[in-house]
Amino acid sequence: MSTPSPYRPGFATQPPLLAGRQHLLQLVETAVRTSGNRRQSFQVLYGPRGVGKTVLLDRYAAIAMERKWAVVRHEARSPGDPIGAIVEQLHDCTGLTKKMSRELVELRERWGEESQTLNLGVYRRESKRERRDAIPIAQQFASAVLAVAEHCTKDRRGLMILVDEVQEVHPDELSVFGPIMQDLSRRPGLTAMIVFGGLPDTPGLVTDAVTYGERMAFHPIDNLDNDATLQALAGPADSAGRPFDGDALTVLADATGGYPYFVQLFGDYAWQASDGHARITLDDANRAIDLARHDSERGLYVARWKKLPAGEQTYLTAMARISTSIPVRTGQIADALGKPITALSAVRNRLLDRGIIVAPSTGHVAASIPGFLDYVLTVTEPPKPTERTSPSKKPTSTSPSSKPRHPGRTT
Ligand SMILES: Nc1ncnc2c1ncn2[C@@H]1O[C@H](COP(=O)(O)OP(=O)(O)OP(=O)(O)O)[C@@H](O)[C@H]1O
Ligand SMILES: [Mg+2]
Fold it and tell me: Is residue 157 a part of any domain in this protein?
């Protein structure tokens, strides 16, 4: 019988080995142990899709729960009612007094009524006056959070609030976190953490909507560096009793480009390809790379490409024609399209905000996931028989020196 794969390709699935995030986990360990370090108590984790924001938030929750903290974990959707959902979860925290429970139930009801009148995103966005009306209930929400934090602190515990996909939260709703963070800062004795996870445009959204937002700690979540990639691939295979040969590991790590989702996907294919062997060989790794790329071409790449408007596709095509493997100068893309750089900054920013590209250094852009620009060429240009091989056979696009490791906007 074949041994089940130890890898976990997918989204929001805990990897068998969470590599390269020790410094962040350490910060949280410290923050839950010591009250008063407010900067690391309010964090924003941001980065492109598939880099591991959700699994990190889950680890944060696990660290807090180990210390018996009350944990409120919400994944925002649009349209949705994040505040209502958070109030419901606060109500479910263990050990609350009857009075607190009653107040949270009342708040939930009031919020429900309020959000029915306010929850028309377009109407709310257009009407600044509604925002003023929403403030008293926002203050009630802040008092409720503070009361629960106070209660947990007295109990020698703490309160952690995690909001994932925070870019989906309406700015009016996001703004209610401002007074909460301000109040918590004034009371350093209270143990509480607030952490947001979101796409690369999240820092701007948070600082615009939340009064206290700019004082949060912003942590970009990047692709894994080479050591972490090797660890994330080798560790699970070793533990499951079928280690990699050295050359197989190097080639596979290189092909993933350190993109965490690919680490799990390519690892999984390598595991399947080596079924029945004692070790994972170079031959297994190469077969896995072909299969994983084929899988991505049909799934991940096509899904991302199809969602993009024509202007963004044109930008990416120009970028791919210059290089599919190393960061490209934004000036070169502008030249190729015959436009000034400034005329392309809006389209470039949208691609950065969506997490399709990253800006590894000033004036340069690169694809956030390896192999994507090779795919762009295959769909935008007819294959020329002698000129280039299919990306599924071409590992050069993901050499470690060329990987984008620093998502974020530096230009
Ligand atoms: N540090 C890591 N080491 C190894 N694998 C990881 C790591 N972080 C995430 N992964 C794997 O990457 C995949 C994507 O993780 P996750 O769903 O948390 O990404 P995300 O950033 O939240 O994506 P999205 O923006 O689409 O929600 C999962 O298969 C997960 O197991
Ligand atoms: Mg996620």
Answer: yes
Q: Are residues 133 and 197 located together in one domain of the fold?
A: yes
Closest residue to atom 23 of ligand 1, CA basis = 50
186 & 272 share domain: no
CA 170 / ligand 2 centre spacing (Å): 18
Q: Has residue 126 been placed in a domain?
A: yes
Specify the residue for token string 């350190």: 258
**Euclidean distance between CA atoms 297 and 392, whole angstroms:** 9
Handedness of CA 94, 99, 105, 110 (dihedral sign): negative
Sheet with 70-75, side-by-side order of all strands: 70-75, 159-164, 192-198, 42-46, 217-220
Mean residue pLDDT of the chain comes to 87
Same structural domain, 188 and 286: no
The total number of structural domains in the chain stands at: 3
Ligand 1 atom showing the smallest separation from residue 10 Cα: 29
Q: Which of the residue ranges 20-34, 138-152, 372-386 would you say has the lowest mean pLDDT?
A: 372-386
- Residue 11 Cβ < 6 Å to ligand 1: yes
Distance CA 5, CA 275 (A): 10
pLDDT at 123 over 50: no
User: Is 272 found in the same domain as 173?
Assistant: no
Q: What CATH number is associated with residue 262?
A: 1.10.8
Separation of CA 115 and ligand 2 centre (Å): 26
Percent of the chain whose pLDDT exceeds 90: 70
- 55 touches ligand 1 (CB under 6 Å): yes
Rounded-to-integer distance, Cα 311 and Cα 379, Å? 16
Number of CB atoms found within 10 A of residue 314's CB? 16
Confidence tier at 118 by pLDDT (50, 70, 90): low
Average pLDDT, stretch 119-146? 60
pTM of the model: 0.86
- Same domain, yes or no: 291 and 343: no
Residues 111 and 49 occupy one common structural domain: yes
pLDDT in tens, 62-108: 999 999 999 999 999 877 889 999 999 999 888 888 988 999 999 88
Residues 230 and 211 in one domain: no
State whether 74 and 131 are in the same domain. yes
Range of the domain at 270: 226-298
9 within ligand 1 shell (Cβ under 6 A) = yes
